[in-house]
Amino acid sequence: MARRSTVRSVTEKSQTADAAAKPPLHPYWVLLIAVVLPGVGQVVNNTPNRGIMFLFFIMSLGWVSMHLSPPDASFIGRYAGGFFIYAISILDAYRWARYRWAFFHREQGKTAAP
Q1: Do 89 and 41 contact (CB within 8 A), yes or no?
Q2: How distant, in Å, are the alpha carbons of 49, 75, 76, 77, 78 from that of 72?
Q3: CA distance 69 to 105
Q4: Which residues, at least 6 apart from 100, have a Cβ–Cβ distance to it below 8 Å?
Q5: I want to staple 24 with a disulfide (CB 3.0 to 4.6 A). Which of 31, 39, 47, 100 is the partner?
Q6: What count of other Cβ atoms lies within 10 Å of the Cβ of residue 60?
């Protein structure tokens, strides 16, 4: 009988922890962070390995395009590979932030419904 009450209290604690779960950051804030700091948008979305990967490819493709571009190319043209991955990382961070935001609020709607 004591075991049933222990299981019940553990279940009640986990349900209250789920109800008090911290919501993810709003997607527009994640977008702003991703624009200002490359790779940090993924870190805010709880995928730090993905952010490090994007940062690595921004640097490496920027370096490659710098060495392959002609000497009279503009700044953007010289580092086009890095800017391309930077743009993809911004879109990726925003997309995952929107997904996490919608998933969190969908789950909150299910628990609030009778």
Answers
A1: yes
A2: 36, 9, 12, 9, 9
A3: 47
A4: 24, 45
A5: 100
A6: 13
Output the CA angle 110-23-44, nearest 5 degrees: 135
d(CA 41, CA 34): 4
Structure tokens belonging to residue 53: 């990967």
- Whether the predicted pLDDT of 7 surpasses 50: no
- Of 98, 102, 96, give the one whose Cα is nearest residue 51: 96
**pTM exceeding 0.85:** no
With b for 16 or more beta-carbon neighbours within 10 A and e for fewer, the 18-48 pattern comes to eeeeeebbebeebbebbbeebbbbbbbbebe
1 — pLDDT class (breaks 50, 70, 90): low
> Each residue of 9-67: pLDDT tens digit?
544 554 555 556 788 899 999 999 999 999 999 999 999 999 999 999 999 999 999 99
